Amino acid sequence: MTALVLVAPGSEEIETVAIVDTLVRGGIEVVLASCCPTGARQICASRGVQIVADCHLDELTTRDFELIVVPGGLPGSEVIRDTPLAIDLLREQAALGRWRAAICAAPAVVLHHHGLLEDASATCHPGFQARLPAAQLSTARVVRDDVHRLITSQGPGTAIEFALELVRVLRGDETARAVAGPMVMP
Question: Would residue 104 show up in a list of annotated catalytic residues for this protein?
Fold first, then answer.
């Protein structure tokens, strides 16, 4: 099982680290790829934390991932939105019927902006919910749309729940419970 997690200058650090950490705990191989316009692997996240990606998006050696995840944060979501290769990968992932996920600002700023929500049920940070079509908007903390193979979530406070749902779709309920236990999740 492999997952691609995109990161850019201004990505939300709690979300990014919670996603990567939880997926790894679930036995999923994660590639953290920088979408930095300068080609740098190290990015300064939204609150000033320095994060070093495994590679720059341009250095990917495969496009074959079971899951692609977009953390939120500004301006990180905008940088990812404006990275053509990131959007191509997300489009390809949808066309292949593979899982995609986004949290916080990313469902609205990245996915909806590029028509990648289709008619899926979705959520995002409350500050961005007005940007999503009312008929598709859910106010749940984590929303899983099995038809569109899309998982969305609201923000830093929902990041671990979101990441556990990612583990659940890739590795099953038992693995998700096994990961959640030592994390002292409710």
Answer: yes
The active-site residue, picked from 35, 36, 104, 124, is 104
Residues written for the chain: 186
Contact, 131 vs 145, CB < 8 A?
no
Distances (CA, A) of 180 to 21, 54, 114: 12, 25, 33
Six-digit token pair at 23? 């997926």
Residue 48 three-state SS: coil
Q: What is the pLDDT of residues 93-142, one digit of tens each?
A: 999 999 999 999 999 999 999 999 999 999 999 999 999 999 999 999 99
Q: How many Å apart are CA 164 and CA 52, to the nearest integer?
A: 23
Contact yes or no for 85/54 (Cβ under 8 A) = no
- C-alpha 111/C-alpha 70 separation (Å) is 9
Torsion angle of C-alpha atoms 27, 90, 59, 82, degrees rounded to 10:
-130
Q: Is 84 in contact with 105 (CB distance < 8 Å)?
A: no
Three-state secondary-structure class, residue 176: helix
Rounded distance between C-alpha atoms, residue 29 and residue 73, angstroms: 24
